[in-house]
Design goal:
By secondary structure, the chain is mainly α. It contains ten helices and no strands.
Length: 313
């Protein structure tokens, strides 16, 4: 029976290692609980399926059979920070692709006239149909000031994340930092396109095969999902621990004396006073509930049961 459950777990859950690495990068302990990791994978899978279905419906409204990047950007258009990060991600991906193509072609010629000029990341030109400015793009000159402001916003958010990572790794040893760097490379889609398609069961929801760019966008969004769920769950856990410690009759945490000697509550064989406990299933469930707490429009005026739309994380 145990072997059957283990086989079913390996078949259904294919990204437990990647999710554990992502959770560790976002502030969780190095070895999170297996039930918590499986719950996060279930949530991410349901979110990916919802995104695919909604993006396919958006493409159908455009009169196209194929999904485009703007269909996914439309779904997250209310989160401006995430849209800017996605655009920056696509821009750097395009730059790496062009550099690789030049290297494969053996083009090592450098223009001396532009050698002193700093390279600028070419922004991916994605026409968003819901933006009013695109309706007059033929009559209006291109304004680079808005692009620069958006790039600065995206860079400021990236710098904040880098600063948080620097604070986390400041006290790490060399081996710990190497492990942390490897965990930061965790991805749902990098060199795993076939596994990702089978994991999300895309053939059941789409008639056409998604190209590599769309798979990369889904990989970016899944990374953001794990980040948001983990950070929200950690915040909930801190609040619950603080409330439990402040409750009347709660045991006081062990304190250290000024002379460096431990207090009476700590013995020789007790664990370290700063030991952290992993996230539990209840923390992830509460985080998902809060992230789903969005106003739903009233559409069933005739009564009866209707399907509640899932909010994208």
């Amino acid at each position: 029976m145990d072997k059957a459950k283990e086989r079913e777990r390996q078949t259904r859950y294919r990204y437990l290692t990647e999710i554990q690495q992502m959770m560790f990068v976002f502030g969780e302990i190095q070895d999170p609980l297996a039930d918590t990791t499986m719950l996060i994978e279930d949530i991410v899978r349901s979110q990916v399926i919802e995104i695919i279905v909604m993006a396919a419906a958006q493409a159908q409204r455009r009169g196209s059979r194929f999904l485009a990047a703007e269909d996914f950007i439309f779904l997250i258009r209310h989160d401006r920070t995430k849209v800017l990060r996605l655009r920056e991600y696509l821009s750097w991906k395009d730059v790496r692709k062009k550099v690789k193509e030049r290297e494969d072609a053996g083009d090592d010629i450098i223009d001396d006239a532009n050698a002193d000029k700093p390279d600028r990341v070419a922004k991916v030109n994605i026409k968003l149909s819901w933006e009013l400015a695109n309706a007059f793009s033929e009559n209006l000159a291109d304004d680079d000031s808005d692009d620069d402001d958006e790039m600065l916003d995206a860079q400021s958010d990236s710098l904040k994340r880098l600063k948080d990572a620097d604070d986390v790794t400041r006290q790490m040893t060399r081996d710990e930092y190497v492990h942390y760097s490897e965990c930061r490379q965790a991805s749902f889609t990098f060199r795993k396109n076939k596994r990702f398609r089978e994991w999300a069961n895309m053939t059941a929801f789409l008639d056409t095969k998604l190209n590599d760019e769309i798979i990369d966008i889904l990989g970016f969004l899944t990374f953001e999902m794990v980040s948001k769920i983990t950070e929200m769950a950690l915040c909930i856990k801190r609040d619950l621990d603080k409330a439990a410690s402040a409750a009347p009759g709660a045991a006081d945490p062990p304190k250290r004396q000024h002379g460096g000697n431990t207090s009476e509550g700590i013995s020789l064989f007790s664990g370290p006073p700063t030991a952290r406990t992993p996230l539990e299933v209840q923390h992830v469930q509460e985080a998902f509930r809060r992230l789903q707490r969005t106003p739903q429009p009233i559409r069933n005026f005739k009564g009866g049961l209707t399907r509640t739309r899932m909010s994208l994380i």
